[in-house]
Amino acid sequence: MNLFKKTVKMLLPKPLLESLVEAEAKIARTWAAQAHRHLLGVQWSMPPQPEHFDHHIDLYDHWLRSRNPMWLERGIFGSLVLRGGRVLELACGDGFNARNFYSLRSEHVLACDFNPQAIQTARAKNSAPNVEFVLADIRTDMPGGTYENIVWDAAIEHFTPTEIHKIMADMKSRLAEQGILSGHTIVERSDGTKSLTHHEYEFRSKEDLLRFIEPHFQNTVVFETKYPDRHNLYFWASNGTLPFDPNWPQAVAVHKQS
What is the pTM of this model? Predict the structure, then answer.
């Protein structure tokens, strides 16, 4: 096969070869998009709804149709606080972020979820040499150890306020001295209906989310992004330095007085 490819490249002029490969790529994109659209329909239009989302659906189809990069924000904002050591991801779902945002810049990622199907998807589609997926219910069986980063992404809304307070305390005891917690959630809809039936508590505002986190940390930031169909909240919390603080080592800033 390699000899065949080399022969074709030698015989065909580059413009013609490029047009043929572009056609091949277009066919592949169309087929992949349709297949993942069908997967979305099967998983989410037929009961019961899954407890996790397969982000390859975003990668191959939904993002390109919607033009909405919100699904990537979560991994990007979480990556800003990585410290290079051990990472614990709570309620990791399909494991897309563990592999594609956290693993390359971290020593080890331990990603857990209480749903066996989520862990099965994560191991099948998002494995990496330094990523370990484990089955665990963080309400009663949060993994032990010490971590430089803990990620609670798109999952805090799946717990009751009482459970959130307990998980926060358990999580804080596993963070290194200057460790950082990061995560994402959503603001409740204006009509009060839940975005997903699995959600136990959806937050009213930045301030509502802050009240769950601030008691446990010296430094906490909650910020938002808004899209036509979703109001997102992101959080960073630590007893040490957070992104864009004056002493954040990953940046240099000059503040001139007028």
Answer: 0.91
CA distances to 17, 50, 78, 146 from 178, rounded to whole Å, are 54, 36, 16, 11
230-238 vs 219-227, strand pairing mode? antiparallel
Q: Which amino acid is at 10?
A: M
H or E segment and range at residue 24 = helix 14-45
Residue 28 φ/ψ, nearest 5 degrees:
-65, -40
Each residue's pLDDT tens digit, 92-129: 999 999 999 999 999 999 999 999 999 999 999 999 99
Would you list the domain boundaries of the chain? 2-45, 69-238
Euclidean distance between CA atoms 96 and 1, whole angstroms? 32
- CATH number for the domain running over 69-238: 3.40.50.150
If you search the block for the tokens 């864009």, which residue do you land on? Answer: 244
In the numeric block, which tokens belong to residue 129?
């040499």
Which of the 8 DSSP states describes residue 203? B
pLDDT 10s digits, 60-90: 999 999 999 999 999 999 999 999 999 999 9
Tokens standing for residue 93: 């779902």
| Alpha carbon distance 87, 131 (integer Å) | 9
Which amino acid makes up residue 5?
K
